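I need you to check the entry underneath: sequence plus fold tokens. Let me know what the token row says about the fold.

>
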Amino acid sequence: MKDIVLTTINAKWTHPSLALRLLKANLGSLEPQCEIIEFALRQPLCEKTEPLLAMRPRILGISISIWNHLATIELLEALEKEWVHSEKPIVILGGPEISFLPDDAKIFEYADYIIRGEGETVFSALCESILQNENKMIGCGRAKPCRRHMAGSPMQPRQSVRPTPPAIRSRQGFARPHQRINFQYDR
């Protein structure tokens, strides 16, 4: 059982998610505790929920894109029904679609954390905080869900983590997954 599971619903099996591989490659010492599970948009819902429930991660990171937004809501609704009978992981949502959704979007009902914008370093720090001590303060709040103001909106039962962009961006510090990760598929 891995502590961190990264997942997304791809448009097709032939379109793997580079974002998940970047997140995993930048987890540092947590990388061995992480597994990537990808699904295809046309895959039946039970083929998506069963592997995630079987993994029983402490953290479930989901990348949201415009083509998988509604399918991810459907997946999260199904998982919520099953989590009533077992321990619910901390759900972290990120990706290009999440970054621009309004704060009252339905998908946020299922999230404990939202990472808007680039998430390579923020996701790593958040996972580290959660796995080390679930009550530790990080960035904008605790690792457990809490009620707090978010960008002038009414109280929301989640936290939004927005990375602060450095004055000069440098990619030298980021791991590059194509240097270390072999792309292999079971299907």
In short: DSSP finds four helices and ten strands in the chain. Residues 4-179 form a domain with the Rossmann fold fold (CATH 3.40.50.280). The two ends are 22 Å apart (CA to CA).
